[in-house]
Amino acid sequence: MAEVMKLIGLLLVFLSLLSLSSAQSPNTITNRTTCPIDLSYVLRIPFNSSSCKNFQAPPRTPQMDRANISCCQTLLSLFGIGLAQHLKATTLFHLPNIAASNSCLQNYQSKLTSLALPSNLVSYCFDPLQFVTSPNFCAQIESTQDWVSKLNQTTALDSACKPDLTNLSSCGACVAAGFKIHTQLKAIDGNSSHSRDCWYFTILYAAAGMINDSEPESEGAVSCIFGLSLLNDTLVGLRKKSYTALVTAVVSATGGLLTILFLYFLWKKSLGKKRAYSENIRNVSAGDGKNDTELPVSSLRSILAATNNFSEANKLGEGGFGHVYKGILNENQEVAIKRLSKKSGQGYQEFMNELKLIAKLQHNNLVSLLGCCIEEEEMILIYEYMPNRSLDKFLFDPRENIKLDWGKCFRIIEGTAQGVLYIHKHSRLKIIHRDLKACNVLLDEEMNPKISDFGMAKIFEINQTEANTNRVVGTYGYMSPEYARYGHFSEKLDVFSFGVLLLEIVSGRRNSAFYHLEHPVTLAGWAWKLWKEGRGMEVIDESVRETCLPHEALRCIHVALLCVQEDPVDRPTMSSVIHMLANEAASLPLFKEPAFSTHSDYKAICSSSPSSSIFSNNLVTISIPEGR
Q1: Domains of the chain: which residue ranges?
Q2: Which H or E run includes 279?
């Protein structure tokens, strides 16, 4: 029986709740800061917690999908019951804001701790953002009203899921109806990467009792819909015999089909990667040391020698792409060697993007790609080594912050702006970076800035001004509203990101630092409020406030607030940004209230990521403890 219950947990939880692992950015509807869910059911349901007892958390890596960990799967199932309760009570599929999500997860952990389970389970398995309401989960659905508007008042679930779901045939009919709704939602959404999220919404809607009088904690919801693995003890109100029959039937009816489908798509994905890899081997020839990107091609043997066989001592950092190592090539040339992880699905696309893009870009304010290696299924990029690491280390580390005076700050601002202008207007390719942020600005020996990490970048035609994408990727807090909400992007996306970065440089504050306040504002919202009150000087970092040129620093704040306006039409171009920064005589237009002036206004998706629409605090970009 235990084995059967374990199998149903693996099959149903994998299919229905895995989507919870992708972090989404919040679209807050209220300012509620307490948990709206009654989690007392956690103590009533005798769920099988064996996978969570004495839990030893594996090291968290960018490639790890925590929803594949057995304990996390169980906890996702159990927490889903509470989310279904919340849906029935409020019509919202997720929680209203990050504060409420944090409160619920803290309460959830408290309940688990009282059951003698480890105190780090919730913080390890979950990200609070993944439970915050957003239109970017599935078909822009956030509430039951949205559900009805997309699927009509009556669906296949209404008739199939009304009977007692502890009955074997009734449960089977309900599950089959769920598959039909899932197919409809996928067609409406149009983004295949949202498939799991749409399936999760289907389950949540059915479990909430929106189509019958049942409760999420009822026998039918727990056994048929959530498939939660229970102990041999009977749950109050649950009939053990019916549950056993249900588990056996679901396993026999769906297990074979799910296994076949899973293996088929796994085979297709593997085959596609192998074909793409073979094609790249043909395109990159090591025979004459050159390729169609005009980059030098290094042998794997030379890379292994340069990095001491990819030793841990040489590792500079890691991210969704893989690892970065310091290496010494011929003639004692120091380089940063970026190695694609064999487990990275997202990274393969980023590798080819960077290989094709950066090789064609040459500018003092862009990091230089020196070569590549594609050999024995290894994919490696070789960059110039940046001894002063990334800008975020100097801005947000108190020990390093004192090394930045205003002159260096302003030079970094101007250099970064020049780099963005180059990719927008003056390079051979017109490029939108899409992930401009402090950790993607590297600093050379003389503290000159160089923009890096073009894995998310998009190429535009010379006369093209805008585009749309179904695959929104980037970093929470730096994305413009039209991109975060609708996938619409243009040069003004990078302008928005530059505005946030400019405020971080001037203030010495990280945008996300405001997130945990009782009434969370964004960095832009905070600066705008002070500016309106005539207190603009208070925005400037205290470490440079007394020594900076006030008019220059205030001009930077003004330009930044122009860049982060809601409407992209109102934002300046990078040419105008540079002109306004460099010319004291230039008149500055008035600005409107910034987009996302509070975190509760943010309507974006959050990987590893990567996760359909992919957001994180440091996505793909490598966070570097030492120079690179």
Answers
A1: 2-52+66-264, 300-384, 391-616
A2: helix 240-283
